[in-house]
Every structure is written in structure tokens, then in C-alpha cells.
């Protein structure tokens, strides 16, 4: 690296150069004693003979040696001076520059990336990676640029058209890290450097390798960090303005189990989520009241923890998640989504995640039942410990174990409860839990204080059907371009009259549509699914509706019949199982007294398990029997059975919840059976 080193690198050439240099006479003639000089260098003789063989002048060797020596001297000198410059720069950086260091897991990283992208600072990088992968991590997307795409293009709602053309995904260029970018901000020079940190291959859980972690360093000249702070504040405002019309979704980073902003989406308007006016109004009023500064002060005065929880329950595709996203947008709250089913998640991580929530945030625990959080152990009934239970519910779980395909969660109920409202849990947040199976939730999880309001999402009733139709054919646009807004303002009187007539027509068609579709039969998602392919022609939708209805109602009928058969099989198996268990108990009572309790229990358990296995063998037979007996039943009987078995869906607040505490009737409960269509059909939609 240094000057002396440069000379020391090649002793042979040095000897050659130095030795032969002395031999050159002032006139530049080749020395007479060349051969002697060459003979003093090991191996030179061999080289000379080789050169002579090919008719090459051996004095070339001397010239080459000299050039090599001179070159070495220069590289040594270059390295030496470079070292000096680096040392001087380090000294200068330490004493005359201000520096900010930001890690990519902090939001401020996004602020800076936003600035870089907006000012196209990193796009001129001569060193970059090329990728065709679409945006998995939008944060990195900020520093990327697409072939021929401007910053504004990337940030448009239809940015996917910028990221791809008719041939597929466009090339995406990612400025290489460890490259410095220079730019001026408010007439001050800034230097910015992105670095990819290669972190260890295993995380705290000992699982998985993490994608590279990024950091960014920003320097500015001067010992006063004021300019640097001003720059960062500017980046923040820029970022916030950009996010104003977007909802930022945070999810749990599976590597370090911290929140990380994973996606930004255009804000979803509350109007676009259709539900009964009463429910929507009740919910929004409650959230608005909770988020008002006066309420916060009141909570503090009363010494109450400032938290609010909601439970959204009902069939899939009824708008639970959509409403949560819309609320986040409407109240300008950050959205944090946690799935308890994640295998990396343990009690302590859940607690840390809840503790690290910012004050104004919604935390969405999606499909909270899917985590199968049981009271004392992670999700439960992984073994057969409760086979002896007298509790009908436990027996049901054992019998239905086969139908639960979900992997057990590592989060215990007590861990989750602690996280939600433990001492360290963050205040000011809104907790929204969603579930398709309210009845399977532990009552402790939804008790008042943890869940303050419940909203049921059901199949579309008349009001909802009408609204979905109107929303689709004449609903407000989510995002209006400035051009569209301008045109809106410039409308002539004639246009306004025409639009009013059109609106009226849509409203009439909507009424007609709602009357044609049977109430409480389809979820909003199903209705939307029918309307979307006909989104440009409301009359066509009305015309094609009867045909669609015929097919759908036929499918529903078939699935309900299948449901009945399943239920009947289940009840038969259960009856048999209970009978066998009683017999086992009687037998065990007669067992010799000198047996230990443990061994008796073990024996009993294994017998019970054998019985269950036998049940599996008998399954086919029973199915046939079940089908036959089903056919024989008269209509009146069927009706009675259905009435007694359809579980009641709770529609009010969690107060006085008794869905778990009241034992399910031996014959009547079959909600745990997996069904192709949800078991709660037919049901009331909204209260
Ligand atoms: N009430 C509704 N209003 C408007 N759109 C709806 C409504 N319900 C469902 N949708 C549409 O159906 C799709 C699924 O909705 P969403 O994910 O909100 O349902 P969900 O109840 O959360 O379902 P899951 O329980 O499976 O999570 C979305 O595209 C959404 O736009």
C-alpha cells in the first residue's frame, strides 16, 4: 500500500532493473557485460536462451525490467498518497463534518429514500443491480427506478403499468450500495451513502436468513448539525405529504420480530364499504369519540388505560378487513397487522409488538380464531390430554381434530391477553380483531374492556344490496386526478341535469336489483363478484341476474344438503363415542386398586384412542347408513332438527357473553364441523 512496499513487491525485477541500470553507458548503447549481468539473476539465463531460440533480442528483457521497476515505483507512490488522502479525509470527517446514521427498520429511512427518489439522486448511479422482481418491499422500491419511468409515475395508483409493459415486468435498476451520492440542499453540500449490512444468517428464533439490512449515512460540511437536521425535517414533511392519501400497512418482520412498513395503499373510502347505516354510524361515532383529545384527557383524569377494542365477526367476504383499512384511512391511523398463526411468534414477541405500537394506530388481529389460542398452552389440543374431559366442548374438539388443518400457534391465550392490556401495552391504540367463528373464541378474549363493541358482518340484506349496486355504478371515485377535478368544476348546467337523471336511473335499477336478489343469501363479496364483470352496463347486470341466481341458488341447495348429511354423520359418531366412553368408565372402575392412577389413565386414554380409530374404520359404513336414514326422515322431522341445531349468532356487545360458558347441547352443536359453506346459513344479517 505504501511507497516502500511498492518497491519491495518484486525483488527479481528490482535486481534486474537496478543491476542493469548501472550497466548502461551514457550513450544509450547496450552494455558489453549484459551476459554477465543476466547470469547473476536466477533463471535469467534460461529466459535468454528461450528468447534467442525465437530470435528475440535479449536486451528487451532489460528494457522490460526497467519499465516494471518504474511502474512499481509509481503504484507504490499512488498507494501511499491515497492512504494519506484517506487519513486526511477521515480526520476531516471526524472534526469538520456532521453525520446522521439511519437504519432501514426505522421510518426515517423511508423519509430519506423518498427524497432520493423524488429528486432522482440515485438514478444517475453508474453502478447498479438489475432486477425484474415486482415490488415486494416498497421501501426499497423508493430507491429503485424503472426503465423509462418517472417518480410521479411510480407513485400513481396504477403504478403497475409503469412497472410492466405488454411483454411483462420492466427492468428495475437498484443503485448499488457503498456508492456515495453528492447533492446540494439549501446551498449546502450533502453526501449520502447507502450500505447493505449482511447480518447473521439466523435470527433470534434460530430461524431463517434475513434479507440484507440497509443503512444510510448522510454527511454535511460543518460542525453544526443544524443543516443536517433541517434536511431530515424536510424529508419527513415530504414523506408525510406523500403518505397523506395512502394507508401504510405495517406487518411483523419475521426476522427480528419488529413492526416494519410493508405496504402503502391508496386510502379506501368509508363509502366504498357497504354495511347497514346503523352499524356503520354506531362504529364510526364510537371511534371518533375515542380518538378525540377530550376523551384522551378524560381517560387520564380517570386513571383508566386509554385503549379501545372492537370485534368484527361474520362470514368471509363480508367486509371486515375492508372496513378496518377504510377506518385507518379516514382517521389517519397507521395500520399494524398481526397474524397469530405465524410460527415465529411467541408470547414475548407479541407483548413487545404491542408495547412498541405508536399512539395513534390500529392493530388488526386478523382471523383471531385461526390462531387456536387455548387457555394454557399454545393452540391447542395438540395431544389427547383432554380425552377424559367431561366437558362436551372438549369432546367435540377431540372428535373434530381431524378437520382442523391449521398448524398450532405458539401464542398462548394468557400471553395474548397480557399483550392486549398488560401493564406495558401501548395506550392510544385501537384494537380490531376479526373472526369468522366468534363462537370459538375464549370468553376472556372478548370480555368488555378488551372488546368494547362487536359488529356482525352478515350476508347482504336489501339495504346493503341496493348500496352495493349504487356504489358500483355511481359511487364516488376513490382518487380523482386533478384534471378530473377541474372538469368536475367546469360542468355545464346541461351536464349536471343529465347526471342527475342518470343517478336517478341507477337508483331505480338498484331497487329493482335488491328486490330480485333474495335477502341474507349472498355475501357482499359474492354480489360484487357478479357485478364486476358487468360494471359498465347496469342494465345488462339486471338482465343476466335471473340466470346467475338460478345457478347460485342451486349450488346453495346442494351444499346445504351436504351439510345436513355431514351433521347427521357427526351426531351418530358422537353418540357412539359417548356410549363407548361410558362403558370404559364402568370397566375402569373394576380395575385392581394396586394400579397407579397414572397407568390407569394411560390405559383408558389408549383405549379411547383405539375407539376413535375404529370409528374411522366404520366411517364409510356410517356414511351409507347416515345417507339412508337421512332420506327416510320425513320433512317435518328435518325442519325440527334444523331449528334446534342452527347456532344462534350473537349480535350485541361482549357483555354477558355466554357462548362459551353455556354448555353446548349434546345434540345441537355442530359448529365445529368444517363445511364447504359456513354453518350459520341461514342467518340474520344485521341487527
Ligand atoms: N361490505 C362490503 N362492502 C364493500 N365491499 C365488500 C364488502 N364485503 C366484501 N367486500 C369486497 O369483498 C372482498 C373481500 O372483503 P374483505 O377482505 O373485507 O372480507 P372479510 O370479511 O375481511 O373476509 P375474511 O373474513 O375472509 O378476511 C374485497 O374485495 C371487498 O372489496
Report what the structure shows:
InterPro entries: AAA+_ATPase, AAA_lid_BCS1, ATPase_AAA_core, ATPase_AAA_CS, BCS1_N, Mitochondrial_chaperone_BCS1, P-loop_NTPase. This is Mitochondrial chaperone BCS1. This protein is an alpha/beta fold. Helix content is 48%, strand content 13%. β10 and β11 form a beta hairpin. α17 runs antiparallel to α19. The chain is extended, with a radius of gyration of 37 Å. The termini are far apart. The N terminus and C terminus are likely disordered. The structure holds adenosine-5'-triphosphate (ATP). Adenosine-5'-triphosphate binds next to α13 and α20.
Bound molecules: adenosine-5'-triphosphate
For the termini, the CA-CA separation is 81 Å
User: What's the assembly state of these chains?
Assistant: single chain
Q: How many separate domains make up the residues? A: 5
Cα-atom Rg, whole angstroms?
A: 37 Å
Known CATH architecture of the largest domain: 3-Layer(aba) Sandwich
> Which structural class do you get from the secondary structure elements?
alpha/beta
Largest sheet: 7 strands, mixed
Number of strands: 16
GO molecular function: ATP binding; ATP hydrolysis activity
Membrane topology: Single-pass membrane protein
Domain BCS1 N-terminal: 72-273
Transmembrane segments: 54-71
Write the layout of secondary structure elements.
Elements: H1 3-8, H2 11-21, H3 34-39, H4 44-53, H5 59-96, E1 97-103, H6 107-118, E2 128-131, H7 138-143, E3 145-146, H8 151-154, H9 160-163, E4 164-165, E5 168-169, E6 172-175, E7 179-185, E8 188-197, E9 213-221, H10 226-243, E10 246-252, E11 259-266, H11 277-291, H12 293-302, E12 308-314, H13 320-330, E13 334-338, H14 347-355, E14 361-365, H15 392-399, H16 413-421, E15 429-435, E16 453-457, H17 462-474, H18 482-489, H19 493-516, H20 524-531, H21 538-589, H22 597-632, H23 635-645
Parallel strand pairs: 10-13, 12-15, 12-16, 13-14, 14-15
Antiparallel strand pairs: 1-9, 2-6, 3-6, 4-5, 7-8, 8-9, 10-11
Helix pairs in contact: 2-5, 6-10, 14-16, 17-19, 17-20, 19-21, 21-22
The protein binds adenosine-5'-triphosphate.
Adenosine-5'-triphosphate binds next to helix 13 and helix 20.
